[in-house]
Amino acid sequence: MKNNSIPNMKKVSIFYNPDISGVESLVQKIQNDFMKNFDKLDPVPLIVDAENKLIEKNEKMLIDSDLIICVGGDGTVLRLAQSIVDESIPIFGIRMGRLGFLTESTSQEVNQKINSIISGNFYIEERKLVKAEYDQKTFFALNDFVIGRKKLGKTSSIGVWINEMPIAEYRSDAVIVASATGSTGYTLSIGGPVLMPNSESIIIMPLAPHLTPSNPIILPSGDQVVLQVLRDDDAIMIVDGISELNIAKEKQIKISISQSSMLFLRINNSYNFLNRVADRLGWLRKDHTLS
Description:
Rossmann fold; alpha+beta; 2 domains; single chain; 6 helices; 291 residues; six-stranded antiparallel sheet; Tumour Suppressor Smad4
């Protein structure tokens, strides 16, 4: 957690997914209401090129920002994270969908929350990225890496080593390696644990394993996971559910927690991670029997 200083918070970008119903009118409202508070308040739509990457013009607009207001859902935040992975730009998320573990505000709270930002009533939350080294390249994910078959219908055989010690050969649809942030993503949907967002742990979990348990493994910061696709010539690695690359058989993928972080702007006394998870997952009864 950092203090509430964003030096020279003058250029603010509003990154949004134009395919979401109602998002463009909300972006326009933010511009109309708050243009006078910043030197620049520019809308940047999520438009991708033929390689499924954000178009260069819009990416350049983002990386020149002091703050990015991200309007959409967690998927929009993950898209944004891929574009600013090398930058230290805080994200303020506005949720338009049903869920939203990464977003700070609902569309109804926008004016109140942005006024809090302007008055300095906020703090910066850091969330560690997870990195994968493969074929002399490094990839970063806010949520997770998924390694498995390109096509459904057959299992992959994936070997897992932790700190050079062989741990498992999973015959499964895939193996997911997630950060603490990713614990509320793909792994959660298959029964994985929920980690606090400031944790620097890694989760390893097989997806639909054949004749082996699906127990997750949680590793502390500093540990390294190595994966190899052992018996599959048609494997891929998916990064944050967005981009994918082909994985050669028996070629190592080294995954660990990165020293890099993604920054999220949170309003003081407004955002509580566990309360949000409990609400989103329906852990508490609606009649509030607990106090």
